[in-house]
Specification:
single chain; 414 residues; alpha+beta; Rossmann fold; Elongation Factor Tu (Ef-tu), domain 3; six-stranded antiparallel barrel; globular
């Protein structure tokens, strides 16, 4: 069954958590015991309803008391047509880093707009981040339509304003749906209150939006997580390279190159679930065997010899600074890309991105929390990368403070 990953974003009071709660509740994706627990808890929230649907995603007590979602809350549900993973990301500007994390692997962004307030700075910020991350599809959900008397005119004005703003962002596909999460209009069931709207409900859209056409064809990539050498009497000559296939697929007999060394050989066997298979596909955890005993270690990348990534020590990237402590020139960092890790430094900050206007700004050499910047990274070892727009698995990375071991930035290769 096909899997759709999507995230929600919007202003603090736009109703993100309520929308997700309504989606899960009306699609009967919540167990009876959870409903009973939420019903009891709802009596203390002051919500004028039998059940406060926002509690489904506002998991931390501090969040509930403040009325905001601080961390990224993930929820999973399934319908007859598709599986879903939802990331409910924060609305406050100071939690941009959380949104960047929640959105990085999404197929679709749901950006909520309060029908009473229209397009805001937060709407623009979330749309710009979606553009930077190359989210394949953006759905603008005009929520709280019940508070504007389900006005088609209000909806059309917001739609036109968003299209005008988003034109220079190069968003791939943009759709619009009017809803009322609190009242349940157009979330799971098409609403009679919005009879002028001829499109699907939110769930209908999520079940039918095309994913495969949005994703670029990914070239085969496998990164070694463990080198398996039991060296027992029974398995004296056994040498396998374990990991998950990051993208594409591999099969026995493929001619491959091990990076960064550049050594070439062929795949002699593939193990999946302790069984020998002829081929394996993206996301499968496998053990790959090679025809020759090469010097292969954790973090090395196995690729077809005719579909090579870039393998360099100087890397151009866009990063989001995630540390409360500002960047210090010369700071010792570690770059981690999946299981590969190497020492790194930021050699050049070539420019910043105004997260509200999408304006490209000259760099002043500083980076503070939630800043977006174009950078040049120098690494101790060569890194095998693809542009994030063509391969999210090999095109994304994090930067770690070598002294504190804190993650200070997340980034994508250009």
């Amino acid at each position: 069954m096909e899997l759709l990953r999507f995230f929600t974003a919007g202003n603090v009071d736009d109703g993100k958590s309520t929308l997700i709660g309504r989606l899960l509740y009306d699609s009967e994706s919540i167990s009876t015991d959870i409903i009973e627990t939420l019903t009891r808890q709802s009596k203390t929230t002051g919500v004028n309803a039998d059940i406060d649907l926002a509690l489904l995603t506002d998991g931390l007590r501090a969040e509930r008391e403040q009325g905001i979602t601080i961390d990224v809350a993930y929820k999973y549900f399934t319908t007859e047509k598709r599986k879903f993973i939802i990331a409910d990301t924060p609305g406050h500007i100071q939690y941009t880093r959380n949104m960047f994390t929640g959105a990085s692997n999404a197929d679709l962004a749901i950006i909520l707009v309060d029908a009473r307030h229209g397009i805001t700075d937060q709407t623009k910020r979330h749309s710009i981040i979606s553009s930077i991350l190359g989210i394949p599809h953006v759905l603008v959900c005009v929520n709280k339509m019940d508070l504007v008397n389900y006005s088609e005119e209000v909806y059309n004005e917001i739609q036109a304003a968003y299209k005008a703003f988003a034109e220079p962002l190069n968003l791939k596909q943009v759709s619009f749906i009017p809803t009322s999460a609190l009242a349940g209009d157009n979330v799971v069931h098409v609403s009679e209150n919005l009879s002028w709207y001829e499109g699907p409900s939110l769930l209908g859209f999520l079940e039918s939006v095309s994913i495969s056409e949005q994703q670029p064809k990914e070239e085969p990539r496998f990164q070694v997580q463990y080198v398996i050498r039991p060296q027992t009497d029974e398995l004296h000559d056994y040498r396998g390279y374990a990991g998950s296939i990051l993208s594409g697929h591999f099969q026995v007999g493929d001619q491959i190159k091990v990076l960064p060394s550049g050594l070439e050989t062929t795949i002699s066997a593939i193990e999946l679930n302790r069984q020998q298979v002829q081929e394996a596909f993206r996301g499968e955890a496998v053990i790959i065997h090679l025809s020759e005993d090469l010097d292969v270690s954790r973090g090395n990348t196995i690729v077809p010899i005719d579909q090579l990534p870039s393998t360099e020590k100087s890397l151009e990237a866009t990063i989001c600074w995630m540390d409360n402590t500002p960047f210090q020139p010369g700071q010792k960092l570690l770059l981690q890309q999946n299981s590969f890790r190497t020492k790194a430094v930021l050699k050049e900050l070539s420019g910043k991105i105004d997260i509200h206007s999408y304006e490209q700004l000259e760099s002043d050499g500083s980076l503070k929390l939630n800043d977006f910047a174009h950078v040049t990274i120098k690494t101790a070892e060569a890194v095998s990368t693809d542009p994030y727009t063509s391969n999210r698995k090999t095109g994304a990375f994090i930067l770690i403070n070598e002294n504190t071991n804190n993650t200070v930035a997340a980034g994508i290769f250009n």
